[in-house]
């Protein structure tokens, strides 16, 4: 098993989380738009495909998945589904959560504006840590673009993926329309490579 991320800091966190569980997992800094030519039996892509905003990069990432998989390889992914996400964010555009950590009290606040024309979420996040020494806040702004099932079906077809199943979570008992997430399990056609 190999973990790939653009962030060396996140990879170090991942390495730390698997210490003591054997050496069957490796990690490396990489880019989904430049996967190695190796052939994998499966790819799990969690929580990043909404960061691909342009049509070109959306098509390119699925072509990369197809190149990295062996014939009949499996791709498992999750994305935010546009209609359900739009409905939820219209009802509740602000999300806030506070947790106690060993460094102090951390409050995460996320405010979402919708751009319906582009199916985008315009996000503003603030992370505030309160310690005995005071308060420190960091602000972030970024854009995410949601997916529709029709869009996913199109990129799967163009990428050479045949059998596709959709769910609302990583639990097959949760139906695709039950949440604002869309989990897809797709198999690359045998004839692709």
SS content category: alpha+beta
Order of helices and strands: EHEEHEHEEEEHEE
In percent, how much strand structure appears in the residues? 35-45%
Question: What is the helix fraction of residues, given as a range?
Answer: 10-25%
The strand count comes to 10
- How can the largest sheet be summarized? 4 strands, mixed
Shape descriptor reads globular
Which helices and strands occur, and which strands form pairs?
Blueprint: E1 2-5, H1 8-18, E2 26-29, E3 40-45, H2 55-68, E4 69-80, H3 82-91, E5 94-101, E6 104-115, E7 120-131, E8 134-145, H4 149-159, E9 161-167, E10 181-188
Parallel strand pairs: 1-2, 3-4
Antiparallel strand pairs: 4-10, 5-6, 6-7, 7-8, 9-10
Helix pairs in contact: 2-4
Describe it.
With 193 residues, the protein is α+β, with helices and mostly antiparallel strands. The chain has a four-stranded mixed β-sheet with strand order 3-4-10-9. Helix 2 packs across helix 4. The two termini are 21 Å apart. The mean pLDDT is 91.
Task: Describe what is shown at a glance.
This protein is an alpha+beta fold and 193 residues long. The protein contains 4 helices and 10 strands.
Characteristics:
193 residues, four-stranded mixed beta sheet, four-stranded antiparallel beta sheet, 10 strands, 44% strand
